[in-house]
Amino acid sequence: MAKTKFLISRYNAARDPKPYLQEFRLEIPQGATLLDCINLIKWTQDGTLTYRMSCRSAICGSCSMKVNGHARLACKTQAAEAVIDGAITIEPMGNSPLIRDLAVDLEPFFDSIDRVKPYLVPDDSKQWKRETLQSHDDYRKIEDASTCILCAACWSDCNVLEVDPRFLGPAALAKAQRFVYDSRDSDTANRIEYLSRVTGMWDCTHCAECATRCPTDAKPLFRIKELRTAAMTHKVTNNNGARHVLAFRESVGGLVPGIGGGMLNENYIPVRSVGFFNLDGILSIIPVGIRMFIRGKNPPILPHIIDKFGEVRAMFRRFNDYRKEYRK
Ligand code: SF4
Ligand code: SF4
Ligand code: FES
């Protein structure tokens, strides 16, 4: 059988000015995972190759690395399926300081988890006499987030973290959902307030990378959506993110007289999002408005109502009925 080209990122701060790809050749044994192949390369070709691994069973979360540009668990990836044009490119995870070869510093990742208080805050006013029981239905609300194995694959590929390292990140937000929705926790309101600040749940752009990369059911994007639902339910809306969502709803649903209906009113949304009485916020968006005006990109001043607005209204009504039903 032909040998496959493994292009593996190498870096040793004591020797290399920057990371580079080193080529190895290996015949992929039948059924081998990528981690099996990397181990073979280390054991038979270069013992200095550095990476993390432990369980080899997709449980411990140690072996995340970028495979052909995207984060994956090496022990959960069939090597033969990762070959593209005769090669597999393996690099360290993104959004993390590089230590050596494929090993990155996970301190920032674990710090992000610490920031969301990843533990239950029990209600001390209750005199617990025995374990705190949970119904099956209550457990189902936190079951998916509970499957996170802290592999940091979502953190590695998050597009927001790439531009703003202060962002809490997908794993921490998924972890937060697990406690916000936990029937035994007594700190829900404080948690939602904290998660609604800048760098929290509203900074996610819905790119879906985290949900695509996550090897478990934790799928952070969906947990972030649940956090946003909780924020709306608890009426924590005094922030740009929540106001932005409300502005979309009001604009498309035609819920505020004079702002149109069935489509986005691009004049209304930015002002509603920063807050009508937030002078600093409004001043901050004026330069963008001026640039749009100079380039002729301003939407019409008079709002427009689309022809089939009745159909949009019907959808909104149906959605509201569904919401009431769902909350019963
Ligand atoms: S969906 Fe949000 S949290 Fe997930 S990777 Fe994209 S920006 Fe990051
Ligand atoms: S949410 Fe998924 S991808 Fe992110 S750390 Fe947990 S298991 Fe890994
Ligand atoms: S070695 Fe534990 S998840 Fe891959």
Write out key terms for the chains shown.
328 residues; alpha+beta; five-stranded mixed β-sheet; two-stranded antiparallel ribbon; binds FE2/S2 (inorganic) cluster
Can you characterise this structure?
The protein has 328 residues and is α+β, with helices and mostly antiparallel strands. Helix content is 40%, strand content 10%. The protein contains 13 helices and seven strands. It has helices at 34-44, 107-115, 136-143, 153-157, 159-163, 170-180, 188-195, 209-213, 220-233, 240-253, 268-274, 279-294, 309-327; strands spanning 4-10, 20-26, 64-67, 70-73, 87-91, 98-100, 103-104. A five-stranded mixed beta sheet has the order 2-1-5-3-4. Helix 6 (170-180) packs antiparallel against helix 7 (188-195). The longest helix has 19 residues, at 309-327. The radius of gyration is 24 Å and the shape is globular. It binds iron/sulfur cluster (2 copies) and FE2/S2 (inorganic) cluster. Residues 61, 148-154, 170-171, 174, 213-216, 218, 220 line the site of one iron/sulfur cluster.
Summarize the structure.
Helices cover 40% and strands 10% of the residues. The chain has 328 residues and is α+β, with helices and mostly antiparallel strands.
SSE layout:
Elements: E1 4-10, E2 20-26, H1 34-44, E3 64-67, E4 70-73, E5 87-91, E6 98-100, E7 103-104, H2 107-115, H3 136-143, H4 153-157, H5 159-163, H6 170-180, H7 188-195, H8 209-213, H9 220-233, H10 240-253, H11 268-274, H12 279-294, H13 309-327
Parallel strand pairs: 1-5
Antiparallel strand pairs: 1-2, 3-4, 3-5, 6-7
